[in-house]
Amino acid sequence: MSSRKFTNFCFIFSALLAFIFLITSCQKSDSDNGDLIAGTISLNVQVMHHTWGVPYTNIYLKKNTTVYPGEDTSVYDVRLSSDNDGKATFEGLHPGNYFVFSKGYDMIWGDTVIGYSPVAIATSAIENNTIDLTLIVSE
């Protein structure tokens, strides 16, 4: 192989390696939920029907909205399941506007229940970086 052909081969090979490196190094991680830096605010939600907590319901959180996104759960950013007391905690939030939605089955009442609420998180209204929300659900 002549020295000119070898030089051309090395140039093309180097350019190809640099191109592959640039493409693979610019991929976004799916685990960051759209935030570059996790926030420090926690939102404690308790799903309540009449006077009792509703256990094992799905609770959805949508960021950056003041309008109810509806029942299509694919549009929400985060999903948690409530514990035995109907409680769940969203962590790592930033100040801003959110919407919380829950739909589940109340085993005590024997029916499907649904509820939703806007949540405005302002740093001036937060104590210990925690906000508590009682989400009332009904049939």
Folded structure, characterized:
By secondary structure, the protein is an alpha+beta fold. Helix content is 17%, strand content 41%. It is built from one helix and eight strands, in the order αββββββββ. Strands 1, 2, 5 and 8 form a four-stranded mixed β-sheet that branches. Strands 4-3-6-7 form a four-stranded antiparallel β-sheet, with no helix packed on it. A hairpin with a 4-residue loop joins strand 6 (96-106) and strand 7. The radius of gyration is 24 Å and the shape is elongated. The protein starts with a helix and ends with a strand.
What attributes characterize this protein structure?
1 helix; about 140 residues; alpha+beta; single chain; 4-stranded antiparallel sheet; elongated; about 15% helix
